[in-house]
Amino acid sequence: MRSVNVRLGAPQDRVLLTGLHTVQDAYCAACDDRLGWRYVKASAPSQRYKEGCFILEKARVYQVRRHHSGVWRAAAHESHSMPRVQEGW
Predict the structure, then answer these.
(1) Strand 34-42 to 54-56 pairing
(2) Of 40, 49, 34, 50, which Cα lies nearest the Cα of 14?
(3) CA 83 to CA 26: how far, in whole Å?
(4) CA–CA separation, 13 vs 75, rounded Å?
(5) Prediction pTM value
(6) Nearest CA to 57 among 39, 76, 34?
(7) In degrees rounded to 5, what are phi and psi of residue 47?
(8) For residue range 44-69, what is the model confidence (pLDDT) as tens digits?
(9) What residues does each domain of the chain span?
């Protein structure tokens, strides 16, 4: 699985609940809002399964709608009034 419409920041070391990880912040390519992060490297062998995975902060993800041009886009980029993604999405 790959992520699209995302811009990645510079790798940085961050201490998370599960230990030290090298991560890159993930930003929306359209509005540049920070959406979450991508695991680049885990220092603990038991956490290496996370490498390459994205974490999207649920509170920062909006529903999307199909634009008349056929391009998917987040409605929140225009008004920030679009409902958030529902539980279980």
Answers:
(1) antiparallel
(2) 40
(3) 21
(4) 33
(5) 0.65
(6) 34
(7) -105, 0
(8) 999 999 999 999 888 877 666 665 55
(9) 6-79
Retrieve residue 58's tokens: 């649920």
- In this structure, of 5-19, 25-39, 44-58, 60-74, the range with the lowest mean pLDDT score is 60-74
- Is the per-residue pLDDT at 25 higher than 90? yes
55 Cβ contact partners less than 8 Å away, ≥ 6 residues apart: 36, 37, 38, 39
Q: How long is the chain?
A: 89
DSSP the chain: ----SEEE---EEEEETTEEEEEEEEEETTT--EEEEEEEEESSGGGGGGTT-EEE-GGG-B-EEE-TTS-EEETHHHHS-SPBPPTT-
What is the percent of the chain where pLDDT is above 70?
Answer: 65
β-strand pairing of 12-16 with 6-8: unpaired
Show the tokens assigned to 72: 């998917």
